[in-house]
Specification:
Blueprint: E1 2-4, H1 10-22, E2 37-39, H2 40-50, E3 62-68, E4 73-81, E5 87-90, E6 95-97, H3 102-115, H4 125-142, E7 149-152, E8 169-170, E9 173-176, H5 178-204, E10 209-213, H6 220-230, E11 236-238, H7 246-256, E12 261-264, E13 269-277, E14 288-290, E15 296-306, E16 312-313, E17 317-325, E18 330-337, E19 351-359, E20 372-380, E21 387-392, E22 395-398, E23 400-403
Parallel strand pairs: 1-2, 3-10, 5-12, 10-11
Antiparallel strand pairs: 3-4, 4-5, 4-6, 7-9, 8-9, 12-16, 13-15, 13-18, 14-15, 17-20, 18-19, 19-23, 20-21, 21-22
Helix pairs in contact: 2-7, 3-4, 3-5
Length: 406
């Protein structure tokens, strides 16, 4: 089982599977379940679900995972379902943003350069990085917003005897006040995390718990700020044991029981290109098609398969009937849109081509060349990865997928 960021596209996940094959983790002819993919916040949710009993979470309770890592912060909300064993239902569309702990590092680097601007030309790069290491390893995880922090200047800086109270420099020590660390380093980033949590809470309407996981999730100050903002509205704000390992341990649980999650929320509208009755005054004249039978059709219409934000069972299958002329194969192009409203056309803003699926024609000895062959295309959108199959004459066949460039 491999974990992938929640913001990854279908193509990115397919590329990960291809890389795993090239690396020898799986073989091309292995069953697809030989390698399973799971999003990082979902894996973390499975880990926290194992801890739900100790946190007294029960049937119908909702909890949010705030997976705060180095680069991104991903959020997901699940509801506990105990009607047939302990299961999880995703109940809001997950969200993520680039506001992880590396952005604290960037702001800290900027603060140090501001403080030492008069001496930058004389400070060796290694000495500057030594101060950054001190921040990353000691100050960042332990900072509580109250205590001032101190950095011992490396001897190579040759500033040990310099006193400059204006920048907090005295006797070879740099004092960073709690106030300036909050204002210049922590608060701008943590406010983004809190805004993400607020958005998810509004969508979920209620939460019984918020779990902070990931490397950044272990930050004392992040916990205190989330507790401060949501403690009165959410019953529990907690950091589970070994929260930095929540994703990898959750991936193990998923491998052992991939059916714990029963419902997911699609991040996109999915559909295909089709034609519909042309509407004068609504559809562009350039999309008008007049067929031989006199009917007037509109080209490039977006025919919806899956609605963005609507709960979807993991085994949900959308079936569409097609036909091909033997022995020729047929293709199907899938489109997606990350828009609030349902797109009308496959050319509308926000719509992009996901992939072309080629359905190979099997050898059918009883069929003559040029004869029409009925087939059914089945698309599975509730799984972590998009899966497309074709049913021809009662047998199921895989499809060849070519993802569009991003």
């Amino acid at each position: 089982c491999l974990t992938v960021p929640a913001m990854w596209s279908d193509k990115a996940k397919a590329t990960m599977r291809e890389a795993a094959t090239m690396a020898g983790l799986i073989q091309e002819d292995d069953h697809r379940d030989r390698l399973m993919l799971i999003s990082e916040p979902e894996a973390a949710a499975l880990y926290c679900e194992k801890k739900c009993e100790q946190f007294n979470l029960k049937h119908n309770d909702r909890f949010m995972i705030c997976d705060a890592g180095g680069g991104t912060v991903d959020l997901i909300v699940f509801e506990i379902d105990e009607r047939s064993g302990r299961k999880l239902r995703e109940c809001t569309k997950g969200h993520g943003q680039s506001c992880g702990s590396v952005f604290l590092d960037r702001r800290m680097r900027k603060l140090l350069k501001k403080k030492f601007k008069e001496y930058l030309s004389t400070i060796p790069a290694s000495a500057f990085e030594s101060m950054m290491d001190n921040f990353v390893e000691l100050i960042k995880p332990q900072f509580d917003g109250v205590e001032d922090q101190f950095i011992t200047l490396p001897a190579s800086m040759n500033l040990a005897s310099l006193n400059n109270p204006a920048i907090g420099l005295e006797d070879g020590m740099l004092c960073l006040t709690a106030g300036e660390l909050k204002k210049d380093v922590f608060e701008p980033v943590i406010k983004e995390v809190i805004n993400l949590c607020e958005e998810q809470l509004q969508k979920a309407q209620r939460l019984e718990a918020i779990f902070l996981v990931g490397g950044f999730g272990s930050s004392n100050y992040l916990f205190e700020r989330v507790q401060e903002e949501f403690g009165s509205r959410v019953g529990l704000v907690a950091v589970p044991p070994r929260c930095e390992l929540a994703v990898v341990r959750g991936a193990v649980y998923f491998g052992l029981n991939p059916h714990v999650v029963t419902t997911r929320i699609p991040r996109y509208w999915y559909g295909i290109d089709t034609t519909t009755t042309f509407e004068e005054g609504v559809d562009p004249p350039s999309y008008k098609i007049v067929r031989a039978d006199g009917s007037v059709r509109c080209d490039n219409r977006f025919s919806v398969y899956i609605r963005r934000g609507q709960p979807l069972d993991i085994d949900n299958c959308v079936s569409k009937d097609f036909f091909a002329y033997y022995p020729h194969h047929t293709t199907c192009t899938l489109y997606a849109a990350d828009t609030d409203e349902q797109p009308r056309y496959t050319t509308s803003p926000g719509v992009h081509k996901v992939a072309n699926f080629t359905i190979p024609m099997p050898s059918l000895t009883e069929v003559m060349e040029g004869e029409k062959v009925d087939l059914t295309i089945k698309m599975y959108f509730g799984e972590v990865e998009l899966r497309v199959e074709a049913v021809i004459r009662g047998k199921t066949y895989g499809t060849t997928c070519t993802f569009d460039s991003e």
